[in-house]
Every structure is written in C-alpha cells, then in structure tokens.
From TrEMBL:
Lineage: Bacteria, Pseudomonadati, Thermodesulfobacteriota, Desulfuromonadia, Desulfuromonadales
Keyword Cell division: no
Spans traversing the lipid bilayer: 37-61, 307-325, 345-368, 380-397, 404-430, 450-469, 481-502
Stretches for region Disordered: 743-777
Alphabetic keyword roster: Hydrolase, Membrane, Transmembrane, Transmembrane helix
Entry protein name: Membrane-associated metal-dependent phosphohydrolase
Amino acid sequence: MTGKTDRKQEGNVRKGKSVFAFMNRQIFTDSATQRKFLLLLVSILIAFIVIPKGSFIPGFYRPGDIAQRNVKAPRDLLVPDEALTEKKQRDAADAVLPLYDYDPRTGRDVTERLKHGFDMLRKLPEPGLAQRHELETLLGISLSDAEMAVLQQLAAQSDQAQLLVQTLQQVMLNQIVGNLQLFQTGGERGIVVRNLVTREERVAQGLDQVIGIGDALDRVAEKSEQLTGLSAADRKLLTVQLSKLLRPNLTYNQSETETRRQQGRQAVKPVLMQVKKGEMVVREGERVTEEQVNKLKALRALGSDQMSLRMAAGLFLILLLLLSVAHRYGRRNISKYRPDNRDLLFMAVTFVGLFILVKLAIFICSALEGSFPYIESSTYYYAFPFAVGAMLVRIVLNSEVALVFGLSFAMVIGLLFGDNLHIALFALVGSLTGGHWVRHCIQRTTLYQAGWRLSMVNVGMVLATQLIAGRGFDMQMFYKAGFGFAGGFVCALLVTGLVPLVETLFKYTTNIKLLELANMNTPVLRELMIQAPGTYHHSIIVGNLAEAAAETIGANPLLARVAAYYHDIGKIRKPLYFVENIGTQENRHNKLSPSMSALILMSHVKEGADMARENKLGQTLIDIIRQHHGTALIKFFYDKAKNQEDPGVQQINERDYRYPGPKPQTREAAVIMLADAIEAASRTLADPTPARIQGMVQKIINNIFIDGQLDECELTLKDLHNIAKSFNRILAGIFHHRIDYPEPVHKEREKETVKKKNGDDSHREPPKESKDSGGNA
C-alpha cells in the first residue's frame, strides 16, 4: 500500500514537472505564445498602474482632526449628506399625524347590551344564579348584590330604564378617548380619524369635540340625576356600573401610525453633495469638518478594494482589446508594421515605463500644489513627456510602428486622467509631432530641433484647449503654455539619455549608433584597412554608391552607407583569396578546386556576421551582411566546374555554387547588393565611358533582378530605375577624365625608343565584366 502511494505521488510530481516544462516551452520558445503572454502582462501592469491604490485612499479622520496632507477628488462623485438626510427623514416622520380609529359601533353595542339586560330583568325579576351569570356575561361586567338590586329597580320602571339608555346613547355619540390629557398632548397638530366601519379617513384639527371617558361618565351621571326613585347610594352604585360599561370609541392606533411614519422616512431620498473632479476636499493642516469627513468616506469607498478590483478588471479588458486590435490592424493593413518579439518587448517596456513615470509625476504635482497654491495641479500635466514613447519608437523602429504606439498610448493616457479627452488629444498630437521630427536622426541636435517644434505644438494645443473650454486668457493658461513649452525640451532631454540605454538593452542600431559606426577608425574597419586594403577601398566606394541610391529612393542613406562599410568584413580572415587584395601575388584559387574556391568565397558571409556580433554592430548590420549576396550564383567557379565536369563521375549541382542567403529583406540590403556587384564589375571596364558605365549598370541590375534576388524586398521598378541613374552619376564621377598634359620632347623620344625595343601590346583583351571572376566577391 505504501509503495503504491509513493508511486502515485511520484507520478503526480512527474506530471506536475511535465506541465511546468510544457508551459516553459510554450512561453519561452513559441513566438505567438510569447506575444500573447506579453500582451496579457502589459494589460495587467497598466491596469494596476492606472487604478488608484494605496496612497490615493485618504486616511481616517474625525471631525476636529488636523489633515495630514492635501486630498483632492480624483473624479466626479456624489457624497451622501447623512445629517441632512436624517433631518429630512425625521421631518417626514413628524409630518405624519397620529392615527385614531373611531368605531361608532361601540356606543350602539353598550346601549344595546344595557337594553337587553333590562329586558332580561323584566322577564325574570328574581333571576337565579345562572340567569345572573348570563346577565353579567351580556353586560361584560361583574355585579354585586347591591348593584343587581339597582338594576332590578330600574328594570321595574321601564320609563326610567328607557331614560337611562337614551342618556347613555346620547353620550356615546361623542368621540371618547381613554386618556384625554395624553390625547391633547399628542394631537396638538391634529389627528387622522379613521372610521372603522366606512374605512374613511379625515384630518381632525379641532379637538374640542373629543371628550375623555371621565367626561362621558360625568355627563351620564349628570343625566342620571333626572331618574326618580333612586337614593343617593343607588345613584352612586349606578355610576360605578356605568363606568364599567362605558368604552372609548376613539383609540390611538400606534402600530399603524409608526408604520406610516416609517414609510414616510423611507420615502425621503438621500441628500447628495456633488464633488467635482480635482476639487480640494481638505487641505493639509486644516481642521476637518463633519462634511469633509463624509467626503473622505466617499473617497475611501471609491478606492475600496472591491471597487478597485472591478475597475481594474474593466480597464484590463479595455487594454487587452485596444492593444490586440491595434497590433492586428497594423499587421494586416500597414506594410511596414512588422515588429518582432524583441520590438514588442521594447514597446511594452516603454509603454509601462512611461505610465510609471507619469504616475509618479502626478504625485509630484499634488505635492507642488501645496507649495504653489496659485498654480492648479492640472497645469503641471502639460509638462509631462507624453511624446517620449513615440519618439523612441520612431528612432529605433519606424514611423508606422510609432503611429500605432502613439495612438494606443494617447487613448490609455486619457483613461489615466479620468477619461480626459483634452489630455488624450494633447498626448496624441505631441506623439505624432515628436515622432515625425526625429526621423532620420543623424545627429544629436535633431532631437533638440524636434523638441523645439514639439514645444510650439504644445503651446498651440494649450491655446486650443483653452478656447474649446470657453475660458479667457487667464494666468492658468499662461502657466499651461509655459509648461507645455518646457515639455517639448523635457522630451528631447529624455530621448537623448534613453537612446543609448535602449541600444544597449535591446541591441538596436539607431541612426545615432550608425553615426558612431561610420567612424573609419573603429577597430574592425582599421583591421579591414590593414588586412584587406582592396576590400576596404571597395567598401568605401560601395558606401558612396549605396548612400546616393538610398537617398534617391527614400530609404535610409545613413544605414546604407554604414552597412556598406561593414558588409565585407568577413574577408579579413582570408584576404588573399579575394582578387581585390591579391595585388601582384599569385592567385591562390589556381591551386584549388572550383568547389573549394566557392566555399571560401561563401565563408566570408558567415564570418562577417560572426565578426559583426563580436564587435556588437547590431542586428540590422548583421542582417545586411548575411543578405548582401542573397542566393546569388558564383558564376566564375560554377562555369569552371562545369568545364571540368566528368559526366561519368559526378554531376555539378548549381546549388553548391550559390550563397546561402537569405535574399535581401529590406531596401537598404538590396541597394548594397546592387552597389557591391556594380562596383566590382566597374573595375573590369577598360574604357569606362558614360555609355559603357550605363550599359554595365543596367546589365548587372537586370541579371540580379532576373535571378530573383530582389523578390523579398520592397524595391519597385521605379526604384531600380532611380538606383541605376544614381549609380551612373557616381561612377561617372569616379571614372572621370583628366587633361593629358604634354610631356617634354626629350621624354617623348625616350618613350618612343622603349616602345620600339619592347614591341606594341595593344592586342591585349580587356577583362570581362564579372564580379565573381578570380575570387572577387
């Protein structure tokens, strides 16, 4: 049994480890899962940053306490005024008059019972014990012998009995209460009389018609003085009996009155005080009043855990939908919106980091308001660096990604500031402005120029917002304009400091980084100049060709030029196997098989990528190094192999003589491929006239295009035409003609003598226009 349990536990442990390993594999290896995980993480973090927590909830105060800090309402809210509500409820309850039930049947019942009693005594003048008991039951009272005798005496005199019944009947026509003094105390404002027979109610203001039970008895006793044949003692006994018979016909209905008063209280709606967003609830050092305590309670309820969780859940859902829809829209509809997982991670870190920065700035603004009360805290918001994210994304990635980033960021900023459309528009316009003016940032002053333009746009937005709100040109507007103007330069300063950090953390190659790499004294370029001088000069010319062509088609000319400098650094490892570095030495390929020569040529691509990684040139340059030959055919050695092919031994496979690729994926990589091939071919021109240069350029571009090497980049036929024109112009400048100055006569004679001795070699054939000939790659 123990062994079975152990095996079961071991199985559970193994199952748990396998699930954990599966999750690890899914999250850390699958790109789609990584993107979804990143989206969820960003949505959760932003939701909990935006939702007020912790210090946003004011402390507990009682009336008379001293406030420890300023507390402002983060949003519009209605605060219940409990004191005023209680007063209104109390007034509503007091307005309900006491309810008295009037039963007219009480008088008739008493007189009828007395009348029936007299009738019974007339029929049985001397009742027995049973009849006496029956009489007591009928009257509802107990009778002594003396009282029985008085009744028998009145029954014997029917006119006297009738007079007594009529007297009682007349008295009972009045509204009689049990305690007149208590009734008069509670019914000063009037009473509500409800007839229990008709169920009708009426308000009785005059209470003079109401008498007490004592008054009713007095009236009966007074009337009974008219009865004859009764002694004083008998009258006294009769009065006692009548006091037992009399009943109040007007009674106070306490339960119904309380019910109606409770309904009156409940009918009163709570009295609410409106607190506007940004309204100062209590200032630091101020004595807290009861009204302020109620407002602080409402703020605490607003920031309670349950409500915060609901708000966070809603905000999380909005963020999830907004970011996922924006990303999918960009992927499907914007051709240059192609961020990979590294780019998405960079944007996520920027997004979250900016929100943390803005949230901290809000706290600082609240603190500054206490020190500078003449400046509203919302005025400081216009100095916030909302445009930093879009500027960074534009510098590191491209304008299309920056557009999607700026739109998404502005929308969520609006949520952070309590659905503030003005702030959202301010952030959006600033992001677009900053992102636009940092394009092709090839020097640091570009950032400050962008900051200047952003400052001017911020001022314009402040003015527009003021006019939309219908406000005049007050001091707060000038403060806002000043902070907006400063905000532009704050963005420039932050971007200047953050760009090197982004380059280091995410291994990006920005234009600013390219400027540093363009320095020809970098270690790898100096090594290239020493180890492979021919390749070094070839790279410089390719750089000039590529930069001019990229400028013509609207690509990044700085990237094209710098990438051209480094595209052949792999030749440093074996420089003498490339024709531009051989010079007067023997061509080493003469002793190698064509396949081996092709492998050596192809190896410079891989070795160049490795050296780029070692020198931290950035992924952009590494990709261009890998793509600058695409999958082109090394035609010289392929043809040589075909010529040496022995059909009986082996078949020459063309794939063995093609570079491993990939093909150029960007316009800059394609431009470098074309410039590389054309510069190499231009070296073979014996007489590089403009016409021959133009023919050579067009031939090389056509061959590369037909070979399909440009299938995966975005160059158009119009771009190829403009690139060709650019190459022609640059090459014409390189191979320009000089004036042949005549030499002295004696030197001309010496040259003629030498020619006669050595013979004329004008029959030599010009070199072929092939980039791959003799190991040139």
